[in-house]
Structure to design on (178 residues):
């Protein structure tokens, strides 16, 4: 285990199992639809790449990049769109693929923006949900795991751009970010 990790919350195998279940659910729910997965960079890149291969249905992918300012371990509440989707989402069954739903500020902002562009439907798949810190209510249709109020890294999630390559999901030691 990496020395900066306090505890491993989900192993590589546990993640793979859960992602497979989510893929099967999404496959059933989106049969005959116009599925477009929109991955929010960079944290959800690994989740997207695993999840899309567990969905047995035609789909398209696109990417958005948003940021709340700074390298802080808490969300500042200000959201900036750095990159919008390449193609219009109008008429598509959009499923936003996010790494973690924390305060809900980023996702709330993204969902309002997307809803204004008339998709056929709009829903969220979040690998992780940290409900204890929610400020903006966001409806999450597909949830991988619920996590405690700790700083989570690995499997795409970073702290100051590090730890994204850890194959497991873990809680960072608070000595690292305090
Ligand atoms: P929210 O707007 O507070 O829901 O969180 C938005 C973004 O903050 C997430 O998509 C993550 O990129 C990042 N984030 C929130 N909590 C964590 C965490 O525990 N570890 C790593 N990134 C996090
Ligand atoms: Mg993110």
């Amino acid at each position: 285990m990496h020395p900066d990790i306090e505890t491993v919350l989900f192993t590589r195998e546990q993640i793979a199992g859960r992602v497979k279940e989510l893929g099967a659910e999404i496959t059933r729910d989106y049969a005959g639809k116009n599925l477009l997965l929109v991955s929010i960079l960079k944290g959800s890149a690994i989740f997207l790449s695993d999840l899309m291969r567990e969905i047995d249905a035609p789909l398209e992918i696109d990417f958005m990049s948003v940021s709340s300012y700074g390298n802080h371990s808490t969300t500042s509440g200000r959201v900036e769109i750095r990159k919008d989707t390449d193609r219009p989402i109008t008429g598509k069954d959009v499923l936003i693929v996010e790494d973690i739903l924390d305060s809900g500020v980023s996702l709330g902002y993204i969902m309002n923006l997307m809803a204004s562009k008339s998709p056929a439907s709009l829903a969220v798949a979040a690998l992780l949900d940290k409900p204890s810190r929610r400020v903006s209510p966001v409806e999450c249709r597909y949830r991988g795991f619920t996590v405690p109020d700790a700083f989570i890294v690995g499997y795409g999630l970073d702290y100051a751009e590090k730890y994204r390559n850890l194959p497991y999901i873990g809680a960072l030691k608070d000595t690292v970010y305090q």
Remarks:
- The domain at 13-147 is CATH 3.40.50.2020 (Rossmann fold).
- Strands lie at 5-10, 35-41, 60-68, 79-83, 93-101, 121-129, 142-146, 152-153, 169-172.
- The mean pLDDT is 94.
